[in-house]
Amino acid sequence: MNKSLYILVLIALALIANTSTVQAEKRIALVIGNSAYTKISTLDNPKNDATLMSQTLKDVGFDVTMATDSDLLAMNRAIGDFSRKLRSSGKDTVGLFYYAGHGVQARGANYLVPLGARVETQADLTLETISASDILTHMESAGNKLNLVVLDACRNNPYKSRFRSNARGLARAQAASGTLLAFSAAPGQVADDGRGRHSAYTLALSRAVRQPGLSVEQVFKQVRVKVETETNGQQTPWEESSLRGDFYFVPAAKPVPVQSVNQGVLGRNNLELTFWNSIQKSSNAAVYHEFLRKFPNGTFSGLAKLRLTELKQKIALLSKPTAPPEPTKTESEPQIDQGALVKNIQTELNRLGCSAGRADGDWGRKSRNALASFARHAKLKLASLDPVPKTFELLSKRRSRVCPLACGRRHVAKQGRCVLKACEKNQQLTKAGRCVAKRTEPKPKKTVTAPTKRTKKKKKSKSSNVRRPNASRYSEVVWPAGTLAAGRRSSRNTKYGRLTCVGGSNRTASGARKRGARRVCYWN
Q1: Is the backbone of residue 181 left (phi > 0), alpha (psi -120 to 50) or beta?
Q2: What is the pLDDT of residue 463?
Q3: What pTM, to 2 d.p., does this model score?
Q4: Among residues 137, 144, 48, which one has the least CA distance to residue 101?
Q5: Which of 83, 89, 78 is nearest to 34 (CA)?
Q6: 395 and 348 in contact (C-beta within 8 Å)?
Q7: What is the dihedral of CA 369, 371, 372, 373, to 10 degrees?
Q8: What is the pLDDT of residues 327-337, one digit of tens each?
Q9: Would you call 83 exposed, middle or buried from its count of C-beta atoms within 10 A (0-12, 13-18, 19+)?
Q10: Other beta carbons less than 10 A from residue 201's beta carbon
């Protein structure tokens, strides 16, 4: 009996030694989870997965920094702080980076998508997203002995319609020396987001990390078996490793030589007390099971049972699928411009043939009817006809007309446009849109009126229709001989009217020019 008690004390001392070893080895982790995307499809579980992994890593001795729903600037700052902390912690530090959210591959490289990323083409990825290779470069530059990178981001490509490539999941990457890369799915495979509150991959990883005595390679082997079973072989986790040593999240108990224990000092009560003091602050359920096995009716067995129950409830609460909490608005969260959102939705509705009128940012009856028409012809059930980001995302994914072309009575749809109906040669188109025979109107009959008494019209002067020349030009007119004497008035009719001249004649009766003779002519 005494020998078994001594062995129990040795186990307790070994646990104490392992705990001190874990605490002496620095472990630093950065955990990021992005769910509340607005420009692409929203994800339900990454934020919950990040919370679960953060608590799991804290329980096994990691100094954890967690960031959720981060934009590009916030992610870059978190990665920069994480890199500086690794660099200042020494070469024996273990670094771990975990990411859950949207991830895409392009030209053989992997990119992590922050909130608010504006990606229209593949070239935008280098400006709006974070390259996974850049994160590896930051961790490698710290010079620490071991780095772990876990990416639960092998979901559907949200920009598939905008890229030429149809690649699925993430691309294969090469791990640097002393680094292990872990992906939730094999290259080109799509990961399951999970039916509950957590993805199948993260839930399996959280449970495997807590098991004592498993090397990091054995942990991911257990995760692979569990995920393949849960997804019926549709998803196979994959790792790329260049580790140079062994690493254990929870080390196994190391035996202590029996000669190091004073066998004559400790009694059974002292053994139980020593064992209890060594495990009472532990978060590992296995040590409490071992304590109850050795001391089922001991002084501290009741406390051990209570502590074990608390740990089970805590693990069950983390893995239980519950409704996610309502997001609270913080200063870091992007504010939605409602007016711009309404204009974008109206523009997309018009593009898809569902007439929403002018895109003026006013969500009225016509816009609601257009959205309802879109849902009816696309065979979708919308939760609401109000303008929300999810509606804009749903509309932007459509690339062709959804609502049929509606033309008036006098027009028909032809090649995506409304054109005027064509009638036969002897037909004409009515306002109702029908082709009818042309009407031949009879010529109007001439009406004979009774003769009326003619009135004498006043004869117009010839000069009324003709512009008269200047009267002075007639001062040189040759008058017939004897018709105009010096100092006398004389008149005559011309084609311009009646001209009257007064004064001396400028010519003699024989027609010779007379000098110095002046006269005045005028029209009357």
Answers
A1: beta
A2: 47
A3: 0.48
A4: 48
A5: 78
A6: yes
A7: 90
A8: 554 544 456 67
A9: buried
A10: 30
Distance CA 506, CA 515 (A): 7
Residue whose C-alpha is closest to residue 165's, from 122, 212, 131: 122
Tokens encoding 307: 């502590």
Instruction: Name the least confident of 155-169, 185-199, 238-252, 256-270.
Output: 256-270
Nearest to 401, CA basis, from 327, 465, 348, 468:
348
- Both tokens of 288, joined, read 């409490």
Beta-bridged to residue 390, according to DSSP, are: none
Q: Are 239 and 220 in contact (CB under 8 A)?
A: yes
* CB count in 10 Å sphere of residue 4: 9
Per-residue model confidence (pLDDT) at position 2: 47
Neighbours of 453 (CB within 10 A): 4
Identify whether the C-beta of residue 209 lies closer than 8 Å to the C-beta of residue 219.
yes
Rounded distance between C-alpha atoms, residue 218 and residue 214, angstroms = 6
> Of how many residues is the chain composed?
524
| Residue closest to 394 by CA, chosen among 154, 36, 39 | 39
- Give the per-residue pLDDT at 135: 92
* Pairwise CA distance, residues 182 & 175, whole Å: 10
DSSP 192: P
Helix (H, G, I), strand (E, B) or coil at 369: helix
pLDDT digit string, tens, across residues 454-506: 666 666 555 455 677 777 666 555 555 455 555 567 788 887 888 888 776 55
Task: Please name every residue paired with 97 in a beta bridge, in sequence order, or none if there are none.
Answer: 30, 149
> What is 385-439 written as a DSSP string?
SS--HHHHHHHHT--S--SPP---TTEEEETTEEEEPP--TTEEE-TTS-EEEPP
Mean pLDDT value across residues 104-129:
88
Residue 441 half-sphere exposure toward CB, CA atoms < 13 A: 3
Confidence of residue 258 (pLDDT cuts 50, 70, 90): very low
Which of 70-79, 362-371, 463-472 is most confident? 70-79
Task: Name 131's bridge partners.
Answer: 111
User: Lowest-confidence range among 161-165, 172-176, 398-402?
Assistant: 161-165
Helix residue ranges per DSSP H, 450-523: none
Residue 425 binned pLDDT confidence (cut-offs 50, 70, 90): confident
